[in-house]
Amino acid sequence: MNHSLLAGFRDQQSLDHAAQLAIQNLRATPDVVLYISKLLPRMDNPGPDYLLLHFSSHYLALHERVLVGQLEKIAKSFGGSIKIALAGRLFGHDSVSAIHRLMALAAEKGVSVEFLPSEDVFEICRQISGARMVVSTSLHYRIVARSYGVPRMSMNNPKITHWSRSNDCTYPFGVEPESLASEFTSLINKSIPPEPQQELDIQSIDAYTVELGEILLNKKASLKNQALTIKPSPPPAPSQELWLTALIDSMDAKDKLIQQQQIQLSSRVFLFKHLSTLSLRSFPKLWSKPQGDR
């Protein structure tokens, strides 16, 4: 039995671009990370208020001075503490040294910033779930914050902007570094009702998971470009053990892939060094000029 491929996109702009390329069986798909609050419920005693920050190494390199000035303004009006955390350090995404530099610059301005060094996925989710507000350059920081109903603000990043415009336009996104303090003050003082979307997110993921299961089990001949719908009586949710097992398997597979990439990269670097050394030895006249030519 032939089956059509599914092309899923989590934001409308990507979906529209795919349609322009005549890709078939397009579908707006929920990001499964929205399920995290179901797998890892928020703690009942979150403790004192804190603002949770996350900035990638690239963003800090570009804007650290401006960010420090904005944090100085925030600290004067915010009664809670300020913390900064990681999303991941692979391939230079986050930099501990850049974070320490930001903390040192902030300390010079009298602003105390606490560093949360954990790289454990579930611990990072707990840090997000307990925050008074989350400010980040990471899309999944925003998605996790939405899952827990935590107020959130995203700095200017096209990927986050596309997703937020399609799925999460209640809270600020596309924020420029110079506007961080003013946006924070506006949001912290705004009364925003609880988000009914949280349960709809979970139902949407459950329905989509069941549909994918039917496709994989050859129970569905074709998607026929049908829109994802949530039935009045949604199918039973997959067990928490199944989600956790799938998540762990995915992480293990990713670790293996990263190890393979690192081995390949090391081999290429070694080969390049070896070839460079041979070329220098074989063609010394090309790399040095006679005394008369200087």
Sum this structure up briefly:
The chain is an alpha/beta fold and 294 residues long. It has helices at 12-20, 36-39, 57-77, 96-108, 121-129, 139-148, 158-167, 180-188, 197-216, 240-282, 284-287, and strands at residues 7-9, 26-28, 50-54, 81-85, 113-116, 133-136, 152-154.
Radius of gyration: 24 Å
Task: Write the CATH homologous superfamily of the domain at 37-188.
Answer: Glycogen Phosphorylase B
The oligomeric state is single chain
Structural class: alpha/beta
Strand neighbour order, sheet with most strands: 5-4-3-6-7
The CATH topology of the domain at 37-188 turns out to be Rossmann fold
CATH architecture of the domain at 37-188: 3-Layer(aba) Sandwich
Number of helices: 11
Which CATH class of the domain at 37-188 is shown?
Answer: Alpha Beta
**How can the largest sheet be summarized?**
5 strands, parallel
- State the shape: globular
Question: What are the secondary-structure elements, in order, as H or E?
Answer: EHEHEHEHEHEHEHHHHH
Distance between the termini: 75 Å
Low-confidence stretches: none
What is the total tally of β strands? Answer: 7
